[in-house]
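[step 3/7] fold_predict: job queued, chain A
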Amino acid sequence: WQADDDGVLNPANIELKPGAIIPKAVGSQGLKPLEMPGRFDISQIVLEDLRARIRHALLADKLGPVVGPKMTATEVLERSAEMALLLGATYGRLQAELLTPLIQRAYRILRRRGEVPDVALDGRYVELDYRAPLARAQGQRNVQNTLSWISSVLAMGPEASTAVNLPEAARFLGDALGVPSDLIREGIAEG
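[step 4/7] structure written:
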């Protein structure tokens, strides 16, 4: 609190603590903080450093900012390809060290409880296949590369087209795109 000074001020009696009454000259503005020529706010520097480290840890600073509200399909593909390239090693490690053991453990627990039956198809092993968005992006690139190769080979003429096993290519494309297996015929006669 500040109160008007009655003319007798003893600086030794002034206590600068919360709730203290500090005398001031009549009509003056009272105590003011010492003005500094530039604003030195250390908390803003610390917060900005923290934000930068979080962006770096989440790999948000690797891709440039989205320029407009709408992105073209090409820009989306390029950004996802760049992100897949950046996260390739990280994803591989996460898949090997976290996802695969986690899914196997969860499946075994559910099978022990009887909530998931044993899967047997004519005595063959059944393999679980899980696809994360990054793995699907890799599959999309494989599809694009395969389709580009097939169209290039078919454009070379009928002699070159014998190098392409079209039924097997169709099965590969279906698998890479996540097409349900019951939609893909097995044992198509090759011509």
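[step 5/7] annotate
Helices lie at 42-57, 73-113, 133-155, 158-161, 166-176.
The beta strands are 2-4, 22-24.
exit 0
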